[in-house]
# Entry
Amino acid sequence: MENKIRIHLADDHHVLIDGMKTLLNTISNFEVVGFSLDGTTLFEEVTANKAQLLILDISMPKKDGLEVLKEFNKKGFPCKVIILSSYDDLKIIKEVMKLGASGYLTKRSAGENIVKAVHAVSSGEEYFCELVGERITNNTTAALPEIIKTETNKNSLLTDREIEIITLIALENSGKEISEQLFISTNTVETHRKNIIKKLKAKNTISIVKYAIKNNLINS
# Structure
């Protein structure tokens, strides 16, 4: 029997909840196991129903999405989180990614992205709708003028995000600095770092720096 991805929905609009539930349940390996109209008991609910992924609205009554993420940080993440929001403000995107969210969709893009987002995030990747991805990329590019654009790694086993992190490590950024520049949590940075070391069979940070220089990711 196929293992299904267990999904919990949190939004204060019942119509949106019903629409997402209907859409997601059409996918054979998805199962919506619960929903919430506010954030007050979300931690307890997703822990109880063993949801693997939470689709979370930022703007909810009583306890909003940011407060929920802060609670998850404090108590330990019971599941992965995709943010669903009416806002595409870079400050908000930055804040939720630093708090540990793995994906971000605007509500107007949800219909065409939500299935791909669930598959990606449940597989350990990050997912952003096109508009949000562009905002992050443009901000990262502006913050990192030293990076040389290259096609060297196009066919590499490394993901684009891992290449970004290798570049930042080679430029002597700390884990905290990388998390702030890429809008991800320090835990996510550390996970990427471990994956990079495994893929490159690197012994230490010096090996990562050598890879960055060899592949023209930074000026040597």
User: Anything to note?
Assistant: Residues 144-155 have pLDDT under 50 and may be disordered. The longest strand covers residues 30-36. The beta strands are 5-10, 30-36, 53-57, 80-85, 103-106, 127-128.
